Hints:
The protein is of the alpha+beta class. The chain has helices at 4-12, 29-38, 79-84, 93-99, 101-106, 117-122, 124-133, 171-177, 238-243, 265-283, 334-347, 351-355, 360-363, and strands spanning 20-24, 42-48, 65-69, 87-89, 152-156, 166-168, 184-188, 193-202, 209-210, 215-226, 252-257, 288-296, 302-308. Helices cover 30% and strands 22% of the residues. α2 (29-38) crosses α11 (334-347).
Amino acid sequence: MIPKQQVLGFLKDYDPESITVATVCSHSSLQIFDGARKEGFKTLGICTGKPPKFYDAFPRAKPDEYLVLESYGDLMERAGELRKRNTIIVPHSSLIAHLGKENYLEIPVPVFGNRVAIEWESDRAKECKWLLGAGTQMPRKIDNPHDIKGPVMVEYEGAQGGKGFFVAKNYEEFNELVDHTRKFTIQEFITGTRYYLHYFYSPIRNEGYTLSRGSLELLSMDRRVESNADEIFRLGSPRELIESGINPTYVITGNMPLVARESLLSRIFSLGEKVVEESLNLFGGVTGAFCIEAVVMDSLEIKVFELSTRIVAGTNLYISGSPYSDLVQKQLSMGRRIAFEIKEASRTNQLDKILSRSSMRYYYKK
């Protein structure tokens, strides 16, 4: 992990009037570039091969320049060039996947957010410790596959858009479908509505929904469209599908907008607050965009099954704002909110609070 003091050293040489916002040309880059431009920043698109042609169709979101690499691993060798541009990298799941977690933790360029959070997000045991420590309700975890007595969701570690996830009702189904070469988690299958809640935590803003430090915002929410799982049951009952050799898959192909009944908002904010406060205790705090992935049951209880500590693709629905972000600021996307945080931190000389990882005492805290 790159030392905090090294990141702070980079910032001393930065020109706050000439910051460049950069990210990989994928995932949520359109709104990141659009939001950065709206807040007056230069933008840099990172890609391999030729720059994606589809950016030409979206001139307001097309980056000002491209950094073309032979492979994403080459980005480590180009770090000095990025720093000369006063670059701040905005991470998303594709950037982390292409660069690799170890390179992401080590790249000697300022990165928006707390890099330590990826260690807690990507490790299921740490993530569970975090969520349970926050007092959230979670689906029951099953350690031994032989103990499967009803529907369970089997998920693999790493952000891969739901690839390979599956539902099993007993050990035989589990054993038939599981990839034993990958680390997996088995949780009871919770019936209800899936909500992907898009929050923003600012350690430098002290108005609005305030916490022990900083403030919390709810900018939007979505549901995910998952490959054949959302349409497959038109073909018949689960038993008929299995007998036909058809299994549902959960690869994410898109997102749908969602608005919660207003009476749920108090619980949704309380949930986000607990998750942030526990992150402050564990590793210095999740910073900026994060997403709590949950199921709302018919009892209106909320059970959390996962979280993401960065911008998620579901926010792409709201480049011009959402029913929630419009009540904060008109045309406020998550990408623009990130850019505004960088702008405000730069203006008030607080970039160290939103770009550096936490101190060693948080990172090694058990």
